[in-house]
Amino acid sequence: MLDTAKKQASTSGSSSLSQDREVSSIPRYYMGDESAPAESSHSPRDTAVEERESHWVYPSPEQFYNAVRRKNHDARVEDMSVVVPIHNAVNEEAWRRILEWEKQWQSDPSAPGPQLVNFVGRPRDVTWRAWMRGLAGYQMPFDRHDWTIVRPGAQGDTPRTMRYIIDFYAGRATSSAEVMSQAQPVSFHLDVRPAPSTIEGIAMRVHRLLHDMTL
Fold it and tell me: Region entry Disordered: which residue ranges (predicted)?
């Protein structure tokens, strides 16, 4: 009875949150022509729909709140105006760093840019790097994602995939009041790198290491 009351209270509270969703800068790869976005005219409405279909779209504050509650995590409606923009900004930064890897590795600047196929949260799967950092006394990541991207390639070429590992580390504790007043930006550290599960992933890491050594 108590759980039911809590669920009803959380649902009623989330109804006051915005249902607007923000379109990310991350291009979305569709696994087949049948699911690709159709060509449309260039009216303002059709252009907006086309953009949403060609890019990943972040959850609305209401969706984010309900998802957190379903995972039995504590969440407050009033915090969503801070938490959701932080969530979106962190993902944008993760994609920016993936693009840095891709730009440094690819030799053809005219080649199509990468697109994100999917992402998987793996907070309980600690990477070897994070584990070694923990042994050295550093903090452990609070989350881990694996993002799979596709390099579309030229017309007729077979698209190639690459999996990236992202460890998320929290920085200095920042209060909601500081964030809202912009007195102190939220501090996060992202460790983004290609997964070493393929020869190419290992080669990309070695290439980055050699590049950094020559700077």
Answer: 1-54
Token pair 């984010």 in the structure block, residue: 64
**Per-domain boundaries in the chain:** 109-215
Contacts of 58 (CB under 8 A, 6+ apart): 21, 22, 23, 24, 84, 87, 88, 91
Tokens found for residue 35: 């699911």
Strand 23-27 versus strand 55-57 pairing type: antiparallel
The pLDDT of residue 41: 37
Report whether 68 contacts 24 (CB < 8 A): no
β-strands 115-121, 143-151: how paired?
antiparallel
| Dist CA 16 CA 204 (whole Å) | 47
Tell me which residue has tokens 């209270």: 9
Helix (H, G, I), strand (E, B) or coil at 200: helix
